[in-house]
Write the structure tokens for this entry.
Amino acid sequence: MLKVVAYRCGAALAVLFVCSLMAFCILRVAPGDAATLILGQEATPQAVETMRQELGLNTPLVQQYFGWLGGVLTGNLGESRLYAMPVTGVIAQAFPVTLLLSLYATALALVISLGFGIAAGLHPNSWVDVVARILTQFGSAMPAFWLAIMLMLFFSSYLEWFPVSGYVPLQEDPLGCIASLTLPACALAAGECGVLLRTVRNSVLEAASHDSMLSTQVKGLTRVRVICIYILKGALVAPVTSAGMQMAKLLGGTVAIESIFALPGLGRLLLTSVEQRDLMLVLGVVIVIAACIVLVNLLCDLVIMALNPGARQKQP
Amino acid sequence: MSTNTQKTRSRIRRGHRISWYIAVVFSAITVIVCLVSLVWTPYDPSAMDLPMRFALPSWSHPFGCDQFGRDILSRTMVAAQPACAVGFGAVSLGALAGSAIGVIATMGSRVMRAVLMRIIDGIMAFPGIMLALMLVLVMGRGLLSALIAVSVFVLPTFARISYQLSLDVNQSLAVRAAQSYGCSPVRIALCHVVPHIASALLVQLSAAIGTAMLLEAALSFLGLGIQPPLASWGTMLSESFTYVILHPHIAVAPGCALLGSVLGFNMLGDVISDVLTQRGNHAA
């Protein structure tokens, strides 16, 4: 067991290393020089040269990478040109917004997909199952940004239930904060539902049609007891952990939604930094999001392994 | 067999048939509209007609006109072109490269396998839109970089699947027999492994087209994909966003077109997988 856990942790570290290397390479090595990328094509050679000096581009690439990586490990992500402050500070301001939004969206998606998924899994081919299947298909095909626009039109502009856009910090006004995040969370939850609902339905269906269910009938257990204890206990581990992984992916997937609703989160920060060509900020945001995703995936894997002995085999 | 189970079965079959029709019809419409728009559209998609600004849907303009008085129907039709170009182009590129990596990885040593798969894991750890944003930053905006960004995004899925499947196939008797004849690894990969895993990849292919279209639209929506005045469902939606509160009708057509095509291609994947499993059952 310990060996497998160590192997998984090692693999996660390796993935994170690959991620950092890839992000660095894409932004530094790929066509065009970072200094020209920042200043634009029309920049004078002198300005480009000064910028190169400033960014430390004249040192060997390997040295640059390990210098940056060393900084990352000690919590120093460099200086943001756009905001004229450390990248860590900029990210620390934006992170809570996106975290809150992803948590809210995942919670909504979990409630909907658990409700419909369990009902559909217990009664396959009933009308609930048909509704669940339609929800799955529409959820995974729905462009989140279009849904966001439509929700905004209907609930903010027509019914005036929620604010059109903007973010209210949680500390100032908890209710206002939830109101400002509801529509964006709904738009994101639709896509999550598409994935989760199918997983919940299938794993409940599989558990309910397992041979061991016969023995619960033989024992004369009540239906409620069978569902709550024997079916759901086993069937819900996989969907709930996969919800965790989905949530981690949302941290970087909220770009369009955040810019529609003008939320000052990580996604919008990433978009602004890409538009303004603030390379250190792009690198910082990317590496923080990738680290969160890898970490959450590792945790989910370990939880599954702790609960399900069958998953403890070492992967090739 | 009791009538109850018969009823259930016929209901399953009917449900399947409906979803098959939807899948085939929606994806076919997307492709046909894309082809038709190459030779004919009701109006010139970029001709401005300022008196017709924000015209509501009517017989002459079924979906109305946008902020420059351009016909929305014509623009929605033309916008199927970049969607199909990215959908088909990026997915075939990513699928080819991804499955090649997956198959080659299984033939290599343990170390090579581990390295290749960690790289694939690394790409997978980035959310799609984030990866695309990074690539667009480096390559510049436009159709080509959107295409490449999307193909990098779909690549790991195919690499993973073909890796897992060809690991199994490599254990099979046929492959071991071929090895004992002294077949070259290339011949084994092309003649024995690829035909076995092709059907599973085909299922993935169709669903990936839907995902690719969504990602292209999201990129264009953010202003980093197809550039205006060229039409794409994403750019049309982002242009309409400015005026949507007062003129909601201009956001309807491109959104529905996008939803319909993605729905069609996603469901087509399920249909292909159904057909393949059925054929497998008959053969068995």
Summary: Chain A has two domains: 2-87, 94-314. Chain A has 14 helices and two strands. Chain A touches chain B through 53 residues (CB under 8 Å).
